[in-house]
Amino acid sequence: MREFLFLCAGLGLGMAIAGLQRLKTERALARIHTSFPADIKDTPLPPIWKLRRGVNWLSESNERLNLEADCWKSATLSAPIGYLQVDSDNYLKRSNAVARELLGLTPSAIATPRLLLELVRSYELDRLIEKTRRTQVPQTRYWTFHPTSDNVSEIERSQPFALCGRGFVLPNGHIGVWLENQQELADLRASRNRWVCDLAHELRTPLTSIKLVSETLEQRLDGTMRAWIVRSISETDRLIALVQDWLDLTKLETDRHLDRELVRIPELVADVWAILEPIAQRRDIGLDFSDCGPLSVSCNRDRMFRVFLNLLDNALQYSPDGATIAVTVSARSPEDNRPENGLTQNGRTQNGLTEAAIVAPNQAGLADGSGSLASDAPPATLKHPSGCITVDILDAGPGFQPVDLPRIFERMYRGDRSRARTVGDDGVAPRHTSGSGLGLAIAEQIVRAHDGTIVARNRPERPGAWLQVSLPMSADAPPS
Asked: With bands split at pLDDT 50, 70 and 90, how would you rate the model's confidence at 385?
């Protein structure tokens, strides 16, 4: 009898354990089934049959993924531009032949895993990778790469070249970088600048002679003939201004040396307006000027004077008679790095505002004709140790067309409204026909040379253009 009781107890315990194990198995199968597509997990079949169909589906999916991975691997290795990949510790994991040729990597150097910085002595490339990893968004950087080698003769033969790197985020903390040699583009830009500069120098002398002859004839002619000469003088002045603007722009791109002094921006803006005030008074255009104290910037006064002269003159040209131009000079502390005026941190827009931004020097691609390049990550605001001074200029004109905004700071670019040049009854071009299309391009180059930003967008509450210049504040003039 005792043996029978023990048998029953053991049988009951075994059945209980089997039931618990079956329950665990069914729950595990249910969790596995959730990863299957609906046509498998919703099928009225026993769990084990669903599992078999799911395993087959996973096997087919794995084969497809492996095939796709092989295709992408072949594409990156055979791409016409360089590609390299580093892991979370910045060890070089993969590179194609173009990247190895650009960076001077030999097969023996990459035979064993090594830190990228050990293989490639490029501070800019390392910063690009670190910024991509830190921000978790794709980054682009331009710089001049100087090849290195253990062989002294190879170093003497190698030449630095312009390089563009585009980093992007990969799974498991890996970072991929596309590398593109842009020396040919830099050489083309340098050649263009030399050609334009030579042409401008050759044109300046005959244009001056034509103007002198026209002014002499103006004093001796009357009636219709005099009107034609007046028109000729106006067009000659426009061509002379165009030639001078080209020379100034070329000089700004090739000569980055600046003789700086401490300049109070509110006083500089007031001096610029004093030059333009007679023109404004004839058209009954007023200035609404506000500032928050004697804010100073270490800059080249003549060049910064040119910036505000171009911007305020542009505002005068497109503002209607009797309008008011608003100018505000304000300070921003170094801690205040929040997006302002509807701008997000990556330079895009919110609340319907449209804008085009030119960022600090060495952050907008090709920096000059010599091929010097650097990063182009476009911040919406600047952040300097001593803060920034921001100058906002808002006119009452029609504003920028959305299609024109991305190209506002390009040389010789003018919107369709400005391209339709007509001549008034007095033989002089009307004010809405801008002179050379280089004013904003010159302002942009000067601001970049001062480590600043310039942004163009439309006023949000009413028609009008909105140009904003931000400059690093001098250390001895803290923000108020």
From this structure: very low
| Dihedral of alpha carbons 398, 399, 401, 404, sign | positive
With tokens 């803006």, the residue in question is: 269
pLDDT classification of 349: cutoffs 50, 70, 90:
very low
Euclidean distance between CA atoms 108 and 129, whole angstroms:
24
Q: Write down the pTM of the prediction.
A: 0.57
DSSP string across 321-362: TT-EEEEEEEEE-TT-----TTB-TTS-B-TT--EEEE-STT
CATH of 183-255, one of 2.60.40.10, 1.10.287.130, 1.10.12.10, 2.40.30.10: 1.10.287.130
Residue type, position 55, single letter: V
Contacts of 356-359 with C-beta under 8 Å, sequence gap 24+, read 356/405, 356/406, 356/407, 356/408, 356/409, 356/455, 356/456, 356/457, 357/453, 357/454, 357/455, 357/456, 358/409, 358/444, 358/447, 358/448, 358/453, 358/454, 358/455, 359/448, 359/453
Tokens 């794709």 identify what position?
Answer: 138
* 3-state SS class at 317: helix
The answer to whether the CB of 163 falls within 8 A of the CB of 373 is yes
Assess whether pLDDT exceeds 50 at residue 341: no
